[in-house]
Each structure stands twice: as C-alpha cells, then as structure tokens.
Amino acid sequence: MSGWALVPGTAPLRGVLVGAGGLGPFWAKELLASADTELAGWVDLDERRAVDGAARLGVTGLPTGPSLAAMLDAEAPDFVVNVTAPLAHREVTVTALEHGVPVLSEKPMAPTMAQAREMVAAADRAGVLFMVSQNRRYLPALVAYRDTVGRLGELASVSCDFYLGHHVGPDHFLFTLDQPLLLDMAIHLFDGARAITGTDPVSVYCESYNPRFSWFPGAAAANAVFEMTGGLRFVLNGSWCADGFQTSWTGSWRTVGAHGTAAWDGETAPRAEPAPGARITATAPDPGGTPEGRFHGLAAALREFVAALRTGATPQGECHDNLRSLAMCHAAVESAATGTRVPVA
Ligand SMILES: NC(=O)c1ccc[n+]([C@@H]2O[C@H](COP(=O)([O-])OP(=O)(O)OC[C@H]3O[C@@H](n4cnc5c(N)ncnc54)[C@H](O)[C@@H]3O)[C@@H](O)[C@H]2O)c1
After folding, report:
1. Cα 137 from Cα 150, distance rounded (Å)
2. Residue at 108 is within a domain
3. Which residue CA neighbors atom 26 of ligand 1 most closely?
4. 128/193 same-domain check
5. Considering only CA atoms, which residue is closest to atom 14 of ligand 1?
6. Residue 245 confidence (pLDDT) above 80
7. Which of 133, 165, 182 is the last residue of a domain?
8. Phi and psi (nearest 5°) for 181?
9. Cβ 18 under 6 angstroms from ligand 1
C-alpha cells in the first residue's frame, strides 16, 4: 500500500490519452473496452492523428487537441495515459502530475535517469500515482515461467537471447537514439529478469555495438552481464538487426538453479528439467488470453492502475520500483561507454 490519493466511488474513471501514433490507438481501445474507464479526450501535437484515430474507432464527439494542459483544464480527467515518444515523456507526465492527475505511462519512463528522477519527485510532491506499464509482466506464459523459476531453489544464472530484424525506417523515433536497443527495447527484458527472478540489479558490464550492415544509426546490438542481488548472474545477448532464427519479442530464456533448469521461448509454455534426484515441474500458462486485435498486456496494466487508484494497492511498474529497471538500461549504456563494470544505482 502506498501514499497516493485514492479516487473514491465506483463510477468509471475518465482518462485522457496523450499520443496517437503507432501504439496510441491500442490504448484507446482499452480505455473504451474497460467497464472501469472512459475515454475523456485525446491529445496529440498533431491533432489530426487523434481525430482520425477516434473516427477509426467509431468514437464521435471526443474532445481532441494539441495541448495536454488545455485538455486537463477543460476535462478535469481522473487520469492520463502517456503514449508519446520517449523524448516527450517527461513533459507530458510532469504536466499531468502538476495538475494533480495520476499517470499511466508507456515505457521507458524517460530517456535519462535525471529526467526519470524528476518525474518521480513530481509524483511524490503531488501525492498522486505514477505507474509505468511494463506489458510483458502480464503475459500468462511469463507469469508461468516466474512460477516455474520459483521451484528451482537457489538461482545461479538467468540468460536472455533477443535476436530480431526490426526493420523500421528513418522517420521512426528509434533513429534518433544512440542506443536504440538498450534505451528502448531492453527495458522489457531487464524488467522481465527482475520480475522472473525477484532480484534487483547490483552492477553491470556491457558492450554495445552496431554491425556494419545495420540499418540503425545507433547501436542496435549489445551483450550485458549483470550481477543481481544474491549473486545471481543475468546475461542479455541482444540484437535488433539480426535476420533469421528470430526469437520472440520477449526473447528466449534459460534459468539455472540448484534443482534444475527452466527454459522459455518468450511465447509458449515454459519447460523444466530437474537436476538428478530433484522433482520440478513447469507451470502451465493461464489460458485466458488477449482478445484478438488488441495489444497484449495493456488491459491488464490498466486494470492494475485502476485498482491502485481505488484501493492503494501497489501496482507493478509503480514509478519508484520501475526506476530500478530503467537504471539497468542506463548503467548498461554507461558501462558500454566507459568499458568498465559499473554499479546500478
Ligand atoms: N509496450 C510495448 O510493447 C510498446 C510497443 C510500441 C511502443 N511502445 C512505447 O509507446 C510509446 C509510443 O510509441 P509509438 O510507437 O506510438 O510512437 P509514435 O512516434 O508512433 O507516436 C508518438 C505520438 O506522440 C505524439 N507526441 C509527441 N510528443 C508529444 C507531446 N509533447 N504532446 C502530445 N503528443 C505528442 C506524436 O505526435 C506521435 O503521434 C513509446 O514510449 C514506445 O516506447 C511500447
């Protein structure tokens, strides 16, 4: 339980969505589909995108505009969902928090740790909830893998291979990043390692690089070794310009413990093989999946956010906790830049 202001009553919570690019419409669908929420307005610097997005979803009369501050004054929503590009995350989130409005934000919280700490401080000052949606945490197969890993006894290592050919064009915001893999994608896998093992980062050694044939301007590949609490080693081998034998978007995992090994392809049911004399079985994922045409995990994150606003129960991705996952990304970047092992603050 935590100290943010609760929203009393049982009426659906009114949410303003900010960002109508690639992912914004998927969040709009969730706000419309949930019995606990209403879509009260849609903001985008390019207002046309919000207007067109609303029309495509068959929503009429929805307030839209280019300015979040104006929308907050006009609509007085119960919460804001921030689905802008990362460079805008601080401005949008702090504007909402300073209006006393709770925020559910897309990952990564911010492009720098300094900005992220500023945002968390703004949430503390306002006394309202600020949560980052880490949608992989709600994958039924990840939950089953976490459960399976919990039976391995003392853990020695967890590794994640992530190899995909992510063919985006130069107009994508990833082209503005020096470290697109570590500063945009890796948060899913780093946060996933924390969720799966229940450990926190201590230090990291990382090398990042850009293959000569890469279509990204920034470093699209990295190898990182983290020391986690309890002495666990977590290794990420990743590349976003790796065509062929692609892993899932949640990577491919192996965790080794005293009682055996648990493996997971990032999508389907996890598997477990016991050490001699040990008895471990893999947990089957909960079959309740995501309805077709919707983006996985957003509905579950929205449910946790609403429950946190109603009850004070701490949600996954609560901003203070999420800082630890973001810190893994930035410590990895620092290690890659300095060639040294660095502590994860
Ligand atoms: N969880 C996931 O699996 C997942 C998948 C895709 C994207 N994302 C995240 O979602 C976020 C958005 O990604 P996207 O692909 O939709 O990006 P995008 O670039 O397609 O869209 C971003 C939108 O935000 C708008 N915008 C930018 N600054 C703004 C501001 N100050 N005020 C209002 N609007 C502003 C832009 O005009 C654009 O329409 C990113 O943080 C990204 O990392 C998460």
Report:
1. 15
2. yes
3. 84
4. no
5. 22
6. yes
7. 133
8. -70, -50
9. yes
| Whether the CB of 85 sits within 6 Å of ligand 1 | yes
Which amino acid would we find at residue 264?
Answer: W
Helices (H), the chain: 24-33, 47-56, 68-75, 89-98, 113-126, 140-149, 180, 186-197, 298-311, 319-338
The domain in which residue 192 lies consists of 140-287+326-343
Residue 17 to residue 28: CA distance in whole angstroms: 7
Sign (positive or negative) of CA dihedral 72, 74, 79, 81: negative
Q: Residue 285 gets which letter from DSSP?
A: P
- 27 Cα–ligand 1 center, Å: 11
Query: For 104, phi and psi rounded to 5 degrees?
Result: -110, 115
| Nearest by Cα to 226 from 171, 159, 279 | 159
- d(Cα 224, Cα 335) in Å, to the nearest integer? 9
42, 106, 109, best to mutate for ligand 1 pocket (most atoms within 8 Å of CB):
106
92 with 234, same domain: the answer is: no
Ligand 1 nearest-atom number relative to CA 84: 24
Sequence-distant (6+) residues with CB within 8 A of 57 are: 25, 28, 29, 32
End-to-end CA distance of the chain: 24
State what percent of residues in the chain have pLDDT above 90: 95
Does 191 contact ligand 1 (Cβ within 6 A)?
A: no
Pair (99, 147) in one structural domain:
no
Q: Which two tokens stand for residue 249?
A: 């978007």
Number of structural domains found in the chain:
2
CATH of the domain at 34: 3.40.50.720
In this prediction, what percent of the chain has a pLDDT beyond 70? 98
CA–CA dist 137, 19 (Å, integer): 23
Quote the ligand 1 centre to 340 CA distance (angstroms). Answer: 33
Amino acid at 298: L
Is the CB of 43 within 6 Å of ligand 1? yes
pLDDT in tens, 311-335: 999 999 999 999 999 999 999 999 9
Identify which of 27, 60, 20, 22 has the alpha carbon closest to the alpha carbon of residue 43: 20
Which amino acid is present at 171? D
Q: Is residue 295 part of a domain?
A: no
